[in-house]
Amino acid sequence: MIETAKTFPHILLYNAQKYGHDKVAIREKDYGIWQSYSWQDYLDQAKDFALGLASLGFKRGDKMAIIGDNRPQLYWGMAAAQCMGGVPVPLYQDAIEKELHYILDHSEARFALAEDQEQSDKLLGLRKEIPRLEYIFYDDPKGMRNYTEPFLLAYDHVQELGRKFGEENPEFFMDEINKGQPDDLAIICYTSGTTGNPKGVMLLYRAIIDAAQGFIDWDGVTENEEVMAYLPMAWIGDHVFSYGEAMVAGFTPNCPEDTSTVVHDMREIGPTYIFCPPRIWENMLTQVMIKMEDAAWVKRKMFHFFLDVANRVEKLRMAHESIPIGLRFLYQLGRSLVYAPLLDNLGMKKVRAAYTAGEAIGPEIFEFFRSLGMNLKQLYGMTESAALISLQKDGDIDSETVGTPAPGVDIKITEMGEVTYKSPGNFVGYYKNPEATEETLEDGYVLSGDAGYMTEKGHLKIIDRAKDVSRLTDGTLFAPKYIENKLKFSPYIKEAVAHGKDMDYVSAFIDIDYGAVGNWAERRHIPYTSYTDLARKPEVYDLIYDGVIRVNKSLSQDEKLRGAQVKRFLLLHKELDPDDGEITRTRKVRRAFVAEKYGALIDALYTEAKDSIDVDATFTYEDGRTTTMKASLGIRNAETF
Predict the structure, then answer these.
(1) Which of 464, 494, 527 is the last residue of a domain?
(2) 407 within 8 A of 450, measured Cβ to Cβ
(3) Judgement on whether residues 448 and 559 belong to the same structural domain of the protein
(4) Confidence at 638, pLDDT banded by 50, 70, 90
(5) Could you tell me if 244 and 305 lie in one domain?
(6) At what angle do helices 538-555 and 514-523 cross, to 10 degrees?
(7) Structural domain span for residue 407
(8) Are residues 246 and 390 part of one domain?
(9) Of 41, 177, 301, 617, which has the most beta carbons under 10 Å away?
């Protein structure tokens, strides 16, 4: 990257000059065919849209909301807004109107770019309540023929306006780009909002570019990488990975045709560098286990045998211990028979560096993928740090930690055990929220809200959110996320919420994985009509009981957490849902909300005479409508060790 590249528009100009039409900047699969765009195409598309924005009155400092699945047009729109000195505000594509209303209003967005009719309808429904929102643009014209609102414009039409404006103002585009400085606001990313309304994290160009460069240097990332751009554009992970790093390194993000085709599309691309939150790794593990349950007896036995071999080898590798010759031979045999074919099936045969981030991943899940030969590493970051805090080094892996401080990052642990850090990617504050900024930024350090400590090897270990770590009445340490992650290693458990603060023992709500458990039930000819009906089956309780027992046996080996085994649990009548406010869009549990909403269920778990409880279940649809049903939930005691 040239020294004069101060902002992403500057970097885009440099990449177009360096690569022209010779290198693919971004791909998208559309109607089954991969469409490729060069760096010159990227610049031309962004330029036309940027000038179109200018022709409609877009000015420096204006905010443009962006919502939809990963599409080249949305990334070009992001670059276009920045070229004009504006600030993109990406939104979660599955957000409901209430969530969108808050962010659109709070960010003062004058413009919005939507992927398709679905997202356009959400914005149109809010425009009367948010008069500041002047224009809505859409990319996919399908279903939009009969829309006549004068402020609703097609993406292509805006570009046509831009080409005309550019002919009349030939110097305008470069003049605006050259006004950009490293300390200009590059983006506002809203947090997931686990404890209230989301906060708008303000990140400068300097912060994101420095963070991107830090990731690139750490793993020797080159312009030849192929990555999948499939994570929500509103998540800082996607912004730094699919936009920031792609710009700085010059590699190629690939947008899948649909969220349901990611694995299939990944097999076609063969990514070399990948970034997934724990939920994705958990889903992949679940799918693998479901397929193996359907496999022939011999194949199933071979899979589990070689999986045990791989697990033993990986534990020895992480402990830097020698691997016996016999075990080494079995591992190599397993590589050809099981591990390599499985990675190929997942589309990860060519991956040389893979990361998990966003929240803690269960050690068992982490070790499963590493045992297959994947170079999976943990990364610890936050929106407020442009994702850059700590990373694991090749050859220095610990499933219980998140690695060592990234280059240029200083980590300090407070007397209360809270992790604080100073990173090149640090944010400058929360938009229109000086009180929260003051509470979070202290002498240049960000208070993470996470409890953790530095190990003897200099690794950072995150225990849980600081506010969530507590004690049982007997003084046993209670870290709910740690227990929940262990439970979620089971392919039949999608989500879990552990309780125990100031209680005599630990209990848990468990969400079954409807697909995995449904598949299991069908193979055993167990009839069911719905999620609620399936979750009430005694056979399903027995299935989940086995998973709870496995976790309890594991906890019994930990001196500090032995007393935190799960004593009682129930299977929830519905999945925890962002639309119902129970979890965030990034699938983090809103504990305070869940505790208040399901207080009666928690009380029942701590009333040992009770073995069931009746509930009135409320479900929220995407359009905001709700429905209510009655359900009776069983409560099961679990053996402890």
Answers:
(1) 464
(2) no
(3) no
(4) confident
(5) no
(6) 120
(7) 278-349+351-464
(8) no
(9) 177
Q: Which of the four pLDDT bands, split at 50, 70 and 90, describes residue 573?
A: confident
Residues in the chain: 641
246 contacts 23 by C-beta, under 8 angstroms: no
Q: Are 189 and 383 in contact (CB under 8 A)?
A: yes
DSSP letters spanning 270-322? --SEEEE-HHHHHHHHHHHHHHHHHS-HHHHHHHHHHHHHHHHHHHHHHTT-P
Shared domain check, 440 and 485 = no
| Rounded distance between C-alpha atoms, residue 492 and residue 512, angstroms | 6
Residue 417's region, left for phi above 0, alpha for psi from -120 to 50, else beta, is left
Structure tokens at 361: 């991943």
End-to-end CA distance of the chain: 57
Give the position of tokens 């003062």: 108
Does 1 score more than 50 pLDDT? no
Q: Give the separation between CA 373 and CA 379, rounded to whole angstroms.
A: 18
Mean per-residue pLDDT over the chain, rounded: 89
Contact partners, residue 514, CB within 8 Å, separation at least 6? 494, 531, 534, 575
> Residue type at 252?
T
Q: Are 43 and 89 in contact (CB under 8 A)?
A: no
Do residue 197 and residue 104 come from a single domain? yes
Cα–Cα distances (Å) from 449 to 41, 60, 384, 417, 577, in that order, read 43, 34, 12, 10, 24
Number of structural domains found in the chain: 3
| pLDDT 10s digits, 480-539 | 888 888 888 788 888 899 998 889 999 999 999 888 899 889 888 999 988 888 989 899
Spatial CA neighbour of 91 closest among 227, 193, 159, 189: 189
Tell me, yes or no, whether 392 and 484 share the same domain. no
